[in-house]
Amino acid sequence: MAAVRSNTNWAEDDIEADELPQTTETTDANGITTIISWKLDEQDRKVKVTRRIRRRVQTQVVSHSVAERKGWAKFGLDSGKPSGPDRKTTIIGENLHFRIAPVSKAEPEVVDPAAAKPTAGKAVVCRLCQGGHFTAKCPYKDQLAVIDNMNTEGMDEEEDAGGVGGLAPKGAGGAGGKYVPPGQRAGGGAGESMFRSRDDLPTLRITSLSVDADEDDVRDLFAKFGRIARVSVVRDRETRESKGLAFVSFEERKNAEEAIKVMNGRGYDSLILNVAWSQPRGDRP
Amino acid sequence: MKPIILQGHERSLTQIVFNSEGDLLFSASKDSVVNAWFTSNGERLGTFGGIKGDGGHNGTVWTVAVDSQTRFLITGAADNTMKLWEIATGKCLFTWDFLTAVKRVAWNEEDDTILSITEQRSGQPSIIRIYKINRDEPTMQTTTPITTMTLSGSKATVALWTPLSEYILTGHESGKVAKYDVKSGEEVNYVDDAHKGEITDIQSSPDGTYFITSSKDKTARIFDSETLEEMKVFPTETPLNSACIAPLRPYIILGGGQDAMSVTTTSQRAGKFESRFWHKLFEEEVGRVKGHFGPINTLAVHPQGKAYASGAEDGFVRVHWFDESYFRSRPFGDLEPEVEV
Fold first, then answer.
1. In the predicted structure, residue B132 carries a pLDDT above the cut 50
2. Please, which residues 224-263 of chain A have a Cβ atom closer than 8 Å to chain B?
3. Which of A265, B9, B140, B226 has its CB surrounded by the most CB atoms within 10 Å?
4. Greater model confidence, A240 or B189
5. Residues 163-182 of chain A whose Cβ lies under 8 A from any Cβ of chain B
6. Is the pLDDT higher at B202 or at A182?
7. Where are the domains of chain B?
8. What range(s) does the RRM domain occupy (chain A) (predicted)?
9. CB < 8 Å to B42, chain A
10. Count of CB atoms within 10 A of residue B37's CB?
């Protein structure tokens, strides 16, 4: 190939670039079709487009008239075009989550500055008696204010004793009132993250699982031990066949422990299940 | 649910209709071309018009109607014509000329008669005409209507045949709903204040015994076809452009949004360009489907209730095939009977 290249000069090479190789289609043993097509990009460079698809035949029973219409030749602007959807006129949109359920009326409406104002005016609530007036104008100000102060003081003490970091600025700062990030405060721990990391969940690794078992089967198998956060069955990337390996994440650690005790060594679909803690990627030998 | 997005129009959609088996969808738009689509995969079967010299429309196509055998298509347009097309080939078979634009057409149940509504403009009143269609020799049609109804009051915007094709039901600009005898052309019944704004769409229930209207007054209403008695009201927050009744499940689908002229000044979220599902009996909203960038102009539901399509001001048609969960849904729990599908 290289020898051929050296013989042609760049001008001929340029002409050759216009002749794009034919689109090739090959189907392998797993039923995966590889389509290799070529196109020119905006700078007239050759671009190889490899698409790997799996064709699945779906049979649908239709009436005769529908079947006849399926065979009609295209007409108008589409006359002479091959059958099948044209990418210029037809695209598949992304998956929409659509569920029929009553739409609650109390749903927070769109942030509309004009609409927000009147509600802000209405939302005057007395801090003492919860009435619809300003705290300063509360008729029970003298009696309730004392009780209220006592309550808040009591709460502050409790919080300090419990060592809840982050919420109360008072006592949470270090010596001299210097700011200390919540994560470094005494008793604050690592702080609470918005998202629970995947690795936080107690996860079990199930091996020698039947290849016929799918996510739902595994979920059924383990659901009796407690709430399951996630189930995944490891599959072949191309054939989508199970590899006999699955991961189950529980929400509670004690449920997971119970599941190991009961399920490890149990028979399922003529195989003996092996259930153990799943080790994070880094710790694995 | 993955929508199939059909982009065959350069301008906003005016009306979309399914054929009786639901395998084809016809879409009319302001760009003067009518498209035919396979609903199962979104493939375009062809276009009616669009090539010079093929007898296509020369202006906004306001309305499209397909007969029950999927043989002939009727379209009405702003170029003051109504056309008959052969669906299998996309050929224009006959053209009727009028003095004003054709705003609505519809086939009767027997496929042998059509109605057309012409616009009220430049001194011309709004007229409903009924034509017999010669099905044996489709290129030989008569231009003399069998009945002509000249409307003196508010103009008619939408119309529909009743079962057995004895009467037609009309929706008017003033919000009036009326019923006309096809033979005599007489108004036999009417409700003057059915809506408080212009009626934008009228669609029949699967059996034709009741029908739904959508209006600019932000409500959709269901009326009895026989007595024109109001049965249900669905109040929403935006002007409505279209409404349809889903067969099989007790839902109706509403679409709308604010006027095209104010679209650019409102955010997409506030615009409410969603198709809204309401429970037909409980008059409660049960779901929304978003996706369009402009107000929905027209909605159509698969005659067997398996899918619905929406056409919008943004020029796109979206076909949605319902998931299995839609057919199993019972949003109000035990209040509803379980339905076998």
1. yes
2. none
3. B9
4. B189
5. none
6. B202
7. 3-328
8. 202-280
9. 85, 89-92
10. 27
